[in-house]
Design brief:
CATH architecture of the largest domain: 3-Layer(aba) Sandwich
Oligomer: single chain
Strand order of the largest sheet: 3-2-1-4-5-6-7
Structural class: alpha/beta
Number of helices: 10
Mean pLDDT: 94
CATH topology of the largest domain: Rossmann fold
CATH superfamily of the largest domain: NAD(P)-binding Rossmann-like Domain
Number of domains: 2
CATH class of the largest domain: Alpha Beta
Shape: globular
Distance between the termini: 31 Å
Largest sheet: 7 strands, parallel
Strand content: 5-15%
Order of helices and strands: HHEHEHEHEHEHEHHHE
Length: 263
């Protein structure tokens, strides 16, 4: 049974906003929600969101609102969310994963670091603040961190730092919003075969002078449970945390990583 089928009774009539829904995990989660019968709004900063919305409509409930804005811009976010009806759940997947080696003197590295923080942390803050006025008792907020939010790798200081910050933001928001009856949790994905992850893989392959497929296999074989996850493998955890089944959970950062976080 798919995650969508299992959750249909929990999502009928509920309005869920998903950011980063033009590709990867965000698009897959939005598709799962649509197939579960949720009233859906989707948001991304690129024009691909319209193509994604059409694809979602072809296999599930059509998104009611398709929003195009840069989450790092508070004004754009407020304008985009203003027309939305009350929000039952907010799922934030929008993210940026640039390479930011600290010993590279290129000023572009500084710009990439700042853009990473602006999207991955400040953007989540802007969207949360804009959505809160439309959320009430029983609302759910799900943020996206990473297994790199609990560890570190070289040359990705911006991304690693931002994903650590997302876990801190999750805990702080949980403390702030718990008295209002709003749950806040984070998902920490491991390696998922998304466009962003594959960009990183291609960089590694080029540096090492080996085929991309070899890097993918090395990554997949490094987990206690070998294998590279696909975006649809992430649907279940997001649908769980954004549902009333997670009403007693808040402030948690949950790994879905085939055991990568334990080694």
């Amino acid at each position: 049974m798919s995650a969508a089928a299992a959750y249909r009774a929990l999502y009928e009539g509920r309005h869920v906003l998903v950011t980063g829904a033009s590709s990867g995990i965000g698009r897959s989660v939005a598709l799962g929600l649509a197939q579960a019968g949720a009233r859906l709004s989707v948001l991304a900063e690129n024009d691909l969101i319209h193509e994604a919305a059409a694809g979602i409509a072809a296999t599930g409930t059509a998104p009611e609102h398709v929003l195009h804005c840069d989450v790092s811009d508070a004004g754009q976010v407020r304008a985009a969310l203003d027309p939305l009806p009350p929000i039952d759940a907010l799922i934030q997947v929008a993210g940026y994963q640039p390479r930011t080696p600290v010993d590279n003197p290129d000023p572009l590295i500084d710009a990439e670091f700042e853009r990473c923080m602006a999207i991955n942390v400040t953007g989540m803050w802007h969207v949360t603040r804009a959505a809160l006025g439309k959320m009430g008792q029983g609302g759910k907020i799900v943020l996206t961190s990473s297994i790199w939010g609990k560890t570190a790798v070289p040359e990705y200081a911006g991304y690693v730092t931002s994903k650590h910050a997302v876990i801190g933001l999750t805990r702080a928001l949980a403390a702030d919003l718990g008295p209002k009856g709003i749950n806040v949790n984070a998902v920490c994905p491991g390696w998922v075969e998304t466009e962003g992850a594959m960009w990183t893989v291609r960089e590694q392959a080029a540096e090492q002078g080996i085929p991309v497929a070899e890097i993918v296999q090395q990554i997949a074989d490094s987990f206690p449970m070998p294998g590279m996850m696909q975006p649809q493998d992430m649907q279940a955890i997001y649908l769980f945390l954004a549902s009333d089944l997670a009403r007693d959970m808040t402030g948690q950062a949950i790994n879905v990583d085939r055991g990568a976080g334990v080694i």
